[in-house]
Amino acid sequence: METSTPLLCExxxxxxADGSAKxxxxxxxxxxxxxxxxxxxxxxxxxxxxxxxxxxxxRSGLPGSQEHEWEEILRQAVEGVLLASLHPRTLxxxxxxxxxxxxxxxxxxxxxxxxxxxxxxxxxTSLFASVTAAIGAQGDLLLDPDAEEExxxxxxxxxxxxxxxxxxxxxxxxxxxxxxxxxGTPQQQQQQQQQQQQQQxxxxxxxxxxxxxxxxxxxxQLVLAMDACRRACAGVAKFSRMSLLAGFADAVVxxx
Length: 256
Prior knowledge:
Layout: E1 4-11, E2 19-25, E3 28-39, E4 51-57, H1 65-81, E5 90-100, H2 105-120, E6 127-135, E7 141-143, H3 147-152, E8 155-166, H4 174-183, H5 186-198, E9 201-204, E10 210-215, H6 219-246, E11 248-254
Parallel strand pairs: 4-5
Antiparallel strand pairs: 1-2, 1-11, 2-3, 3-5, 6-7, 6-8, 8-9, 8-10
C-alpha cells in the first residue's frame, strides 16, 4: 500500500507566540501557537513540573464535545514528550486553530502542534509525527482519508509515534568536520551543517505515543493500521526535518 500526501509546513508566523506553525496536508490545514513556559496560575501550578493546556478551536462556531476530546488527546501527546521537570510551576499552552477540514484533522493538528513546539525551542525528549488510517467499506486500509472517506469508513485510527535522529556511523562528522565548517564562509558553514543533519538516521519508535480510534474493527485490522501508520510517520518525520532545515518547505512525502 502506498500513498503520497502533499504536505506544507511554515513556522514563525505569529509574533506574539513563543512558537507557531501552519501545517497543511491535502484539504486540511491547522495553525498552532505555543505560549510558554510561563508562570502558571494557582489552580494549574505544579511545584514539580510544567503543566500543559491545549485549546482546540474549530473553523467556525464554539468548540464542542469532539474538540474537547481532541484537546485531551493532544495534551497527553505533548505531555508525553515534554521535559516538564525542567520548568516547574509553569504552564505551556498550545492553541490549535482549524483553517480548513477535509479529513485526518486530528493528525494535522498533532503535526502542527509538534512543529510549533519545535519552533518555540521547548526541550523535548523527542518529536512526534501523526498519521490517520481508515478501514473502508470493503475492508481496505486507507491512509490520510478525506472527509468523505472517513464518513464512509468502518473504523478510523489516528496514531502518533515519537521519532528522533541519531548520528550515522562514518557520516563525516566529528572534530574534523566541525573545524572544516568553522573555517569556511557563513554559506559554507550552513551547507556543512545541513549535510551533517541530513546524514543523521531517522528512528521512529515502535511504541505508540497516541492512539485514537472510532468504529468497529478486529485486532488484526488494528495491528495492520498501526504498522502502516508507523511507516507513514517516517515520511512525515522526514518532511518535518526538511522544513526545520529550510524554515519553509512544501513537498510531496511518500509513506513508503
